[in-house]
Amino acid sequence: MTKPILISGAGLASLLLARSLLRSKIPFRLFERDASLSFRGQGYRLRLSNEGLDAVEQVLGPEDFAKFYEICGKTGGSGFKGFDAVTGEVLEEKGQPQAQSTSSNDKDTGLKNEIQDKTAPKANSLSSRDSKIVGIARGEMRRFFFEGLEQYTQFNKKAVDYVETPDGDSVKIVFSDGSESEEGSMIIAGEGIKSKIAQKVSGGKLKHYDTRIRGIHGQAPTSAFKPLGEGVFRFKDPRGLFVITNVRAKDMDDPDMQFGWTMIGQPELIKIPNDDYTIVGKTVSDLAKNLTSGWDEKFRPLFAEMVENEAAFWKVTCSTPSGVPIWDNHPRITVIGDAAHSMTPAGGLGANTALRDSALLGQLLKDAGGYKEGLTEEYEEKMRVYGSEAVAQSYGMASKEFGVEIDEKTSSTV
After folding, report:
1. pLDDT averaged over the chain?
2. Which end of the chain is less packed: N or C, by CB atoms within 10 Å?
């Protein structure tokens, strides 16, 4: 009997990989630490690049991708408009930098030297398909990817370690309650930046740094956004506080629809009580309203009318800017998504790169019919190329826009 592939974490990369395995009829099991997909706040809206959309289409196939693309929001235009948040004056009106694709045939020889030359932002359009800016809420994307995976998923299972059978032919996940999974042919670690499995399998080489940028995610009814019109907008005040939002004309008149916004700033601006990121609701909402109380009246409804229970704090982290590190390959264990390459929100590269992981690894597994020797090594070699470039691009943009500076020798890790 074929032993299943064990996937730890039910984030975007893990769920899309599971959908790939389901479609390829390869046995798998999915383990998630939370009690459900909606257990905690799901974060801000994600912009999908051509690379991200291509990855989703490759995994889902034409019919299911058409359904997915239908629920995505599409915003006209190919750039964004930047405002002085206090005066309401337009500061810029142009396209926003975005990472370009990297050929899967590129070699990782001398990778770190190449990446160091690629940190400068690239002036490309925000738009992807149909000359539209395509986006979807993270929670909505997770729910769509989860369809059909219910019977293969166990919740309340936090992965903390792994063990190998004495013969080396199987691996098992160890959970925080002391229990173990069934034997599997492989383990795919997709639990994000605090993945214990990723830390162990990489020998501690996978590191994630605190950029010292802090954020607030909020949502408000569409009526609060009407004065802005359609487009992607960014507001900046003299203190260095930024807010970005995406207003879609198609959904503007839907009274049940909410649009989201993301606020980022230095810790001295966004002071999170006790650095506790589990805080949601009124405390977060009140801080956002206070921080924007002096902003132009066109922008204040986004905060004055915000949905209180959707307000949440978040910390901006970044993987090693010089590139995804090389570690001793384990033939049966590998890493996907943020666990391998977390990024700042600059450029909107993180989720799209995670989706590329799912498509690449899923295709390799499909071609092999499941586990085979050398598969994880081939995946990691290819992932390091585009993953390292994406991290470098995201870090370069964040350095320019928000003053982020990471010294890999002295900066704090998370």
Report:
1. 88
2. N
